[in-house]
Predict the 3D structure of the following.
Amino acid sequence: MQQPIVISGAGILGCYISCALSLQGIDSIVLEKKDDEVEDSIRTITLNPFSKNLLDKIGIENDYSMIDKMEVKDFDGTGKIVFKSSEIGMDHLAYVSDFSTLLMAIRKKASEKILYKEEIIDIDNKGDLNEVTLSSGKVITTNLIISSDGKNSKLANKIPKSDKDYFQTALTFLASAEKDMNMSAFQIFSDNGICAFMPTRKKGEDFVTVVWSISDDLIENGYEDFIEENLEKISRKIGNSFQIRSKVQSFKLSSHNRSSYIDFPVVLVGDSAHSIHPLAGQGINLGFEDANSLVKKIIKTNDSDTINFKESLNVYSNERRLQNEIMLKTMDGFVALFNERNPYIRFLRNFGLNAFNQSKFLKSFFVKAASGPIK
C-alpha cells in the first residue's frame, strides 16, 4: 500500500488509528473539518482495560480516575450486584477520563498527520486507486478511506442502517461528593431513570460525573425541577450526597447499526458505523475494538493485492458488525428490563440481581466480557 490512508475525522478513534498505523510504518492523513481548537466541556468517557491498553501502546499519557468497584442497585428493592477488580484478578475495572483532555493528548500525538479545516467533497475511483478531492481543492490519491467522523457521517450515509429511538434523554453534569468515592462507581435503576455516578478528574480536581438517562415524558416540562426533586433521593441509595458543579448537558438517546461497515473504498469505525445506549458506557470501547481490528487487517494485507485487501476488509465488517449487534441487543434487553414497572417483573428482577451477585463465575464472565478482548 504505497499511498497514504485517508482518515476522515480527527476524533479519538481517528487519531488512534493514525498513530497505530504509524508504528507499523504505514502512512496516513487525518482530515478534520473544524479548526484545531478543542472546546472545553464536561463530557467524560469511560475506558475499559482493553481500550486503555491500546492508548498506552501508542504512548498516550492521561490523568485517569480509576474504578475498582462498581455497584448496580435497584432503587425500589434490595437487588444489587457488586463488581470488584480484586475478585477477578484485574488492576482496575475501568478508567474515567475528561474527554477534552484526552482528545488534546491524542491529537498532539498525531499532529503531523492532521489537516484541519479540510473535508472530503468528492471521491473519484481510478481502478485500484481513488482520487479524493478536499474542500480546499487539494487532491489526494489513496487506496482506502476510513470514516471515523461520527453518527452523521456523510461518507457512511450511503449504507442503510437500523435505528432505535429510546424516547429518553441523557442528562450529564459534574458534581462534588460529600463523601469520597474511593474508586467506586454506582448505577441506580429506578422509575426516575438510570443514574450513574463515576469518579473523574478535571484540571487536577476531583469530581463525580453523573449520567442520567430519563424517559422523555418525565421531563417534558424541563429537567431543572426534576433534578432538584430526585437527585438527593437517588444519591441516598448509595449513602452519599452530591452538589452540581457544572452546567447540565442533555442529548436524546438512540442507537443504530449499519448493514455493512464497508462501501469500498470507504470503511467505517465507531459512531459512523454504530451507536449504543450509554447504559454500560461501552460506546467508545466498541469503537476501539473496531479500530484495533481494522488496524490489524490493514497491517496484515499491507502488501497484498487489491482483491485480498477487499476480502480482508469484508471480514472486518462482518466480524465487527456481528459483535456490535450482540452488544446492542444486550443493552436493549437491559433497558427494557429496568424500565419495566410490573411489580412481578420487579420482584423477579431483584431476585435475579441478588442471585447474580452470589455467583463469582457469572460476575467474572460479565466483567471480563465488558473489559474487552483478551490481549
Observations:
- Residues 5-47+96-162+254-334 form a domain with the FAD/NAD(P)-binding domain fold (CATH 3.50.50.60).
- The two ends are 27 Å apart (CA to CA).
